[in-house]
Amino acid sequence: MVSRKVAIHGLAALLLGAASPALALTPEAFAQCLNGLGQQAREQGLDPRVVERALGQAKLDEKVMELDQRQPEFTSSFADYYTVRVNDQRILQGRKLQDTHRDLLAGVEKEYGVPARYLLAFWGLETNYGGFYGNTPVLDALATLACEGRRGEYFSRELINALRIVQEGAIDTERMRGSWAGAMGQVQFMPSIFLAHAVDADGDGRRDLWNSLPDALSSAANFLRDLGWHPGERWGREVTLPADFDFRHAGLAETRPLSAWRELGVRLPEGDPLPDEQLQAALLVPSGHQGPAFLVYHNFRVILGWNRSEAYALAVGRLADRIAGAAPLSRAPVPAPRLRRDQVVELQHRLNERGFDAGEPDGILGPGTRAALGRFQHAQKMIADGFPDAQTLRRTGLISDDAAADAPSR
CB of 187 within 8 A of CB of 216? Predict the structure, then answer.
């Protein structure tokens, strides 16, 4: 017998076709898929009345499909990402909110071991401190994405988890609003994360991440603790590197104790030596050897458990530091040439063809591609920092001399 899950996703595939555009999902196909999802929810023990009422209101959202299919024309450099997110307004607002909610934050830190500055940083980056956490009906978004087919299995699970949240009484369907991808509340939890980690901190009997700040911040702290947060340790720190530093040591794949980085000449931004400790750290240089350098510790990897982007995790750490009074970076991030995703795919193909394994070409300048680019630079007797500056891209043949002359370089 074919399982209900297989039947639903088989239906989506037949309705859409592997290469069909997102907007091929018709209202009739959506309604048929929704019926199947409702049956799956009932088979998993949800109250039929909740399922019927909630899914009976769900609507196909073409804007959600467009956003899911849309690929950014250009990749975003660390300089672009960081400058927008760790800005003066967000730092100052975070400091003000730290004073306003001092008692609440102290209580959360005492219970979960996560300092206030980190909770504020997550809150600030996710929703600008509750200023905007999305206005898309979550059930519409998740049902649309489940039936669209591209990531149907994942979003089907999240839709059923959202129905469980409605069933437990955390929030009614009309007020369950969030991002176009279904992330919800002041700290933008997906439904599965909500069910596993959200807490009722204010004792009103509901886990309300929309309207209860105690619930939202405690839930964020609980999630981080469950991910393995080490109380009493920081995320990492900015450092400076010696002029002859071998950048092949950079990247999350290589960890050394602080004492070993100290022996390699890595120092604090003010020039003082690193602590002579055994704390394990990896080195990141997100905008090349002319930009800032960071040693990152265990809690940085915990932040990656929240969001797999290294740029996001660095922004969380640095925003937390700035809220706590730290100085700006001693070296500003360096702009990189703007590359379209198809250009990144071409770069990955070129690296692979030359024997520098960048993995399956996907148009994303992730750690694997950066590492491959660093190996290419080393073979070319360049500084092997993995940074796609104009000179490096010219050497790969990706851009011409004329284009390189107009692009940021070192």
Answer: yes
Take residue 92 and report the two structure tokens written for it.
């100052």
375 touches 356 (CB < 8 A): yes
Return d(Cα 51, Cα 57) in angstroms, integer.
10
Distance between CA atoms of residues 271 and 409, nearest Å: 26
Burial of 6 from C-beta contacts in 10 A (0-12 / 13-18 / 19+): exposed
pLDDT for 274-327, tens place per residue? 999 999 999 999 999 999 999 999 999 999 999 999 999 999 999 999 999 999
More confident residue, 363 or 197: 197
Topology of 4-70+134-184 in CATH?
Answer: Helicase, Ruva Protein; domain 3 (1.10.8)
Per-residue pLDDT tens for 77-132?
Answer: 899 999 999 999 999 999 999 999 999 999 999 999 999 999 999 999 999 999 99
Phi-psi region of 314 (alpha: psi -120 to 50; beta: other; left: phi over 0): alpha
What is the DSSP annotation of 17-36? -TT--GGG--HHHHHHHHHH
Classify the phi-psi angles of 120: left when phi > 0, otherwise alpha if psi is within -120 to 50, otherwise beta: alpha
Pairing assessment for the beta strands 236-239 and 251-257 based on DSSP bridges: unpaired
Please list, residue by residue across 229-242, b when 16 or more beta carbons sit within 10 angstroms of its beta carbon and e when fewer do: beeeebbbbbbbbe
Q: Residue 352 CA to chain centroid, in angstroms?
A: 27
Residue 15 pLDDT exceeds 70: no
- Rounded Cα distance between 263 and 258, Å, is 9
Positive or negative: CA dihedral 27, 33, 39, 41: negative
- Burial classification of residue 258, based on how many CB atoms lie within 10 Å of its CB (0-12 exposed, 13-18 middle, 19 or more buried): buried
Lowest mean pLDDT among 64-68, 184-188, 261-265: 64-68
Strand order across the beta sheet in which 251-257 lies? 236-239, 293-296, 280-284, 251-257
What's the mean pLDDT in 199-227? 97
pTM (predicted TM-score): 0.89
- How many CA within 13 A on the CB side of residue 344? 27
Residue spans in the chain of domains classed CATH 1.10.8.350: 4-70+134-184
